[in-house]
Structures are given as structure tokens and as C-alpha cells.
Amino acid sequence: MSGGSYYVPETSKWPILGSLALGAMMLGSGVMLVHGAVGMPVMLIGLFGILTVMGFWFRDVIKESRGGLYDDQMDRSFRWGMAWFIFSEVMFFAAFFGALFYVRTFALPWLDGEGAKGVASLLWPDFTASWPLLNPPDSSIAGPTDTFSPWHLPLVNTLILVSSSITLTVAHEALKEGLRATARNWLAGTVLLGLCFITIQGVEYYEAYAHYGITLEAGIYGATFFMLTGFHGLHVIIGTIILAVMLARVLQGHFTGEDHFGFEAAAWYWHFVDVVWIGLFLFVYVF
Q1: Cβ(188)–Cβ(247) below 8 Å
Q2: What class of enzyme is it (predicted)?
């Protein structure tokens, strides 16, 4: 582009369609939590809608980029936009980590008679605070029968995600050096590691429901476990899809060593997801 002009994209229908699809998915998910399989069709329709919108939106942005419509100002806009998006994600997970911290540090000791608000122990005088909370204070709620050892599947998934950050970094450095084959191979390995993580997480969820009694109804432990690991798993799925798109673009020769912010933004997102998992591993599984 010339004259320092700024590209203004055409009016897009994808944001509103994406919002509607996301709303449908969340509505269906909420109905499923209350009424079981009744909400599954709506949830699946919403999920399909989100994936469809992502595909068409990616297509449009790629066409604009390949068409030479973006300049340095647009590059700065993309970078700031991605940085603020990741910041919003940090705040999103901080809220759930904060809830976990509040329950473990304040609420449970209060219910056990400790601290300035220990009068709360009058609600359930026989309750003894412990974490993981296998015996909720309300006897009508069944807690989990057991918890996961952090040194089995959780540790494997930790090693997988840490390794995926390394392979992605190698791919990124190779791309900057113009080593397209190396970038392709290491990026493909990153996508494969992401798929492995998702698979193992699915196995862990099956084990949680089938053998450990860890469900969303299993008291505060089950609720915080699935809210934290579930939303993180969703981010891993999204990140894997994005990296797969980046892999397809690398195969088509879309990036250069100097112009590859799409790849770089995907890398930022993936590294953020990896850091969140380290926090989950430590504070959900280990401590």
C-alpha cells in the first residue's frame, strides 16, 4: 500500500454470526447440565456454527493478507488486538483460579470454625475442612470417591504441552530463517502433540466420571475441576485448530521470514495455553 493509508475491512457478517453460534452452543450446554441430552442438538448446532464461522473468517483474512491490503499500521493493530485478547483470557482464567483460591483459603476454614467468620461452622457443625474435598458439608451432595494422582495422566499431559511449546518455538525460528521444510515438520509435530493432549484429557474425563466419582455434581471440588480443566481443554482444541490452519498455510507458502504475524499470533496463543496448564497442574492436581 502507498501513502501510509490504512485498510478498513468491508462490513463483515462473521462477528454477529459467530456470536449467535456461540450463544447457541452455550445455551445447549446449559440445558444439557440441567436436562441432560435434551440440549445436545442445540449445543452441536452451535459448535458446528462456530467452526463454520471460524473457517470462513480465516478465509477472508487470509485473502486480505495475501492480497497485499495490510500495511505496517494494520500489523500494529493486529499485534495490539492479539495482546489485549490474551490479556482478557488471562483475566478469564484468573477468575476461576481466584474462585479456587477463595474456597480453599477462606470458605473451607470458615466452615470449619476458623477465622473471623468461623461462625459459619454453625451451618454444619460436624464438617471438617480438607482439600481435596471428598466429603462436602451438605450430606445430600456426594463428593468424589477419589482424586487423580498428578504423576500419571496429568504429568503426561504436562510433558506433552511443554514439549509442544518447544516444537512450536523451533518451527517459528525455522520460519524466520526461511527453512520452510523444518518449520513444516516441527509445526506438524506441535499439532500432533495438541491432538495427543486432547485425547488424553478425554480419557481422564472418562476415568473421572466412571471410576473416581468426579462430576460437576460432586461438590466444589468437582465444579472447580471441570470449570478449570474444561475451559482449558476448549482452549487447547481451538489452539490446535488454529495451528492446523497455520500448518496448511505453511504448506501453501503463505509466510515469509519477515511477514508471518498469523503464525506468530497462533504461537502467542499456544504458549499462553501452555502456561495456564502449568498453573492447573500445580494447583488443581499437585497442591
Answers
A1: yes
A2: translocase
Alpha-helix residue ranges (DSSP H) falling in the chain: 14-35, 40-66, 72-102, 108-111, 153-176, 180-207, 219-251, 261-280
Sign of the dihedral defined by the CA atoms of residues 222, 224, 229, 235, in that order: positive
**CA 198/CA 217 separation, integer angstroms:** 23
Q: What is the pLDDT of residues 171-216, one digit of tens each?
A: 999 999 999 999 999 999 999 999 999 999 999 999 999 999 999 8
- Terminal alpha carbon distance of the chain: 54
Signed CA dihedral, 197, 202, 205, 210: sign only:
negative
Asked whether the beta carbons of 24 and 30 are under 8 A apart, the reply is no
Q: Residue 193 and residue 48: Cα distance in Å, rounded?
A: 24
Averaged confidence pLDDT in the chain:
92
- CB-based burial of residue 210 (10 Å sphere; 0-12 exposed, 13-18 middle, 19+ buried)? exposed
Residue 137: DSSP 8-state? S
- pTM greater than 0.70 (yes/no): yes
Return the amino acid letter for 195: L
Task: Check residue 32 and report its DSSP letter.
Answer: H
Burial of residue 21 (number of CB atoms within 10 Å: 0-12, 13-18, 19+): buried
